[in-house]
Structure formats: structure tokens, C-alpha cells
Amino acid sequence: MQTALADSIRASPQGHEADAILRSCVHCGFCLPACPTYQLLGDELDSPRGRIYLMKQVLEGEPVSAPTQLHLDRCLTCRACESACPSGVRYGRLLDLGRALIEERVTRPLPSRLERYLLRRIVPYRRRVRVLLGLARTVRPLLPRSLRARLPAAAGAGTALQPGQLRRWPAPRHARRVVLLEGCVQPVIAPEIDAAAAQVLDRIGLTVVPVGGGCCGALAHHLSAHEESRAQARRNIDALWPHVEAGAEAVVVSASACAAMVCDYGRLLSDDSAYAARAARISELALDIGQLVAAHAGPLRAAFTETSAASPGQSPLRVAFHAPCTLQHALRAAGVVERLLQAAGFTLTQVADARCCGSAGTYSLLQPELATRLLSAKVSALEADAPQVIATANIGCLLHLRAGTALPVHHWIELVAARLARG
Question: What CATH number does residue 333 fall under?
Fold first, then answer.
């Protein structure tokens, strides 16, 4: 793609980066069938190729309008187009640059600005989320049905899958250690996920040290509040670094979206002389929980064998796995969790649609109509082969899917922990 970037941006680092990404696009259109919003709306401007043209126009100094902003807002940032692209176009990074530039030039209506501000000021902070959820549960009968469906149960309420012992954190007993970054929303809504992760890692010889640095920075980043996101990344690096210096083997995250963000800290802070080296090291050590468990598949298989011998004759649970976009396309770890679930003795059902469920961070709140249509299609695909339970790898997807199905929805690591506990 030929470019002629505006003088105001051409010489900047962002301009150089955007120009290189634009020039790598060859207009082939392989991205279109992979794009969920193009499949829903049939509008080229709601496809990756169309959005690339819109961003090119902005970068070349042409006038920008609210409709241009809307087409970019409708993008899920699922990055399925990147997996489909034969030219390796870094569409997600170009979208970050384009959205930030448009945010400077187009003033959003006041309700939209307020909504995005409140999301940034509430969601990344545990205490604020806890207070807001408490208030929402108090007035639950008065809420619209759509909001009631999305309201999570109280943390620790318990299910047949999570008896009390599965919510306990194992005592440290191994010399090998990893650090688990707890994040913001998940410890409030579903603390049993990290407890299950710690129990599984304990069974394969790893002590897990929880670190409560806070939000990974993804929410602010995708709302174009980049300096806010960088500040959150620095805070997490400060919290993690003493453990890294003490010999932690990995920085593990149990939410795939957060894992993808932490893996990007090196790039995010590459121009920060005080943090660049540490950020790069954190990114090198960062792994989604599935990637870490898969790297220790041998000890895990032995644990599964012991469990099977201790509880013979049990019918395998039928599981439909929804692979989050961040696991498939950002972390490039497609198939990793599925193989682990099969090794654990679960029967995986067929899921014909691998597209985004519509959660996409704050997308389900900012674009509810499209998110609901995507959720309906995803749930239909997940339920088609008669599973007993739905599993996923990201807290946002988990909560979104629960709003659309009567089947139980859990993080896959909870299923594995429960399977091991039965032995």
C-alpha cells in the first residue's frame, strides 16, 4: 500500500511505525471472512481492510469525522484478521495508533465520554468493583433483565464444581516458584480461578506466589488512555520485580487477555529508560496459565494417571471449550488448552464457530447490540454438540457467556483442579 503521511506525524516514531504497517498491507481481502463485524454487518468499512483505509486517510491528514470513529469503535480488537493475514499486517497495533489519533481530533458526545471515563475509573480498581457489585446485588430485582443476567454471583458462593477445598490456596512446598499476577476484576468476582491455578501448579511441582499489582492496563489501553495504561504497567512491574530478582521462573496470568497485555509490556515501555529493561524481562517471563501448564505436561499426565486410578469408572465430562481471541490470536496459543483438557480425561465437543464471543473487554458494554448478536451465535455453536459444561480461559468471556446460556460456564483450570482433587 502506497502512503503519504501528513507532515505532522510522518517523522514521529508513531508515524514510522504506522507507515510500515500500512505498507505491509496488499489489499488481498483474506481478513474479511475472519472479521466478526464484517460478517454481521456486511460493510467493508467494518472490516479490517476498510478500517485500514480509514486510518490511512487520517494519517495522511484528511478530515476525520464521527462515522470514522464509529467504524473503529465497532472493531472488537479480536485480531482474527492477523491470524488470517498472509502478509503479517500488525492490524491491532495500527488500530491502537489510529484510535488514539482520532480520539484527539473527534470530540465524543458527553454521555459517551462519561461512560468511558467511569469504566476507566471503576473497573481497574478492586474495591470500587466490590462496592459497585454489592450495590447492584442489593437492587438486583429492580434491574433490567439484561443487566440481571450479567450480574455475577457473590464470590465464594460455591457450585458443585467448587467445593470449599478447591477455593483454598496451597501452602508453599516447592523450591521452584512462579509469580501469579492477580489483576483487578477477577479476584473480586471469581477468586476460585487463581486458587485452582495454584492447586494445579502445586501438583506439578511449582509454588505460586500471588502478587496483587492491580489492573494489567488493557482496559485503559483499548480506550486510548495510553499514559494511564503505561502507569498501570509500571506499577505492576514494580510489584513483580522483587520476585523476578529472587528467581521466579515465570510470571503467570490466569486471564488470557491480561496475559496478552503483560506480554506486551516490553513494547509498551520500550521508550521509558527507567523501565524498558525490566518491562522487556517481564514480557519474556509472562505466560498464560495454559502455556505454563502445557510446558509441564509430563508431571501433569502422571497426576491425571494417579487420579484415574483412584476414581475408576467415572464417565468423562463433555466440555465445549471457547478459545478467547487473546489466546488464539494475541498469544498464538490455539489448541493448547484443548490438548490439556483431553489429557485430563474430558471429552471435548465440536464447536464449529471459533469467532469472538462479543465480550472483548468493554465492548459488550460500549457496543451492546453487536455484542449480543455475537454472543447468541457463539452460544449456539457451543451448545450444538450437547456439552455438559462450557469452559473458557478469560474472565471477560466467562461472564459474557454466562449471560447467554443456562449451562455452567467455568475457567478450564477449575475443571482440571476439580479433576485432580477427585483423586
Answer: 3.40.50.1860
Encode pLDDT of 304-342 as tens digits: 777 665 555 567 899 999 999 999 999 999 999 999 999
Cα–Cα distance, 337 to 320 (Å, whole number): 12
Query: Cell 447467554 identifies what position?
Result: 404
Order of strands, sheet of 177-181, starting from the edge strand that comes earlier in the sequence: 207-211, 177-181, 251-253, 286-288
Phi and psi angles of residue 350, each rounded to the nearest 5 degrees, phi first:
-80, 130
**Segments forming the whole domain that contains residue 409:** 311-421
Number of domains forming the structure of the chain: 3
Do 272 and 335 have their domain in common? no
Residue 236 phi/psi, 5-degree rounding, is: -70, -40
Q: What is the largest CA-CA distance in the chain?
A: 71
Q: Is residue 187 part of a domain?
A: yes
Give dist(CA 131, CA 138) in Å, integer. Answer: 11
CATH code of the domain in which 237 resides: 3.40.50
Q: Which H or E element spans position 238? A: helix 226-245
Q: Which three cell numbers stand for residue 185?
A: 476484576
Same domain assignment for residues 384 and 326: yes
Domain shared by 318 and 287, yes or no:
no
- Indicate the residue type of 46: D
> Are 202 and 81 in the same domain?
no
In a domain, 145, yes or no: no
pLDDT tens digits, 259-310: 999 999 999 999 999 999 999 999 999 999 999 999 988 888 887 777 665 5
The phi and psi torsions of 205 (rounded to 5 degrees) equal: 95, 20
Q: For the beta carbon of residue 26, count every other beta carbon within 10 angstroms.
A: 12
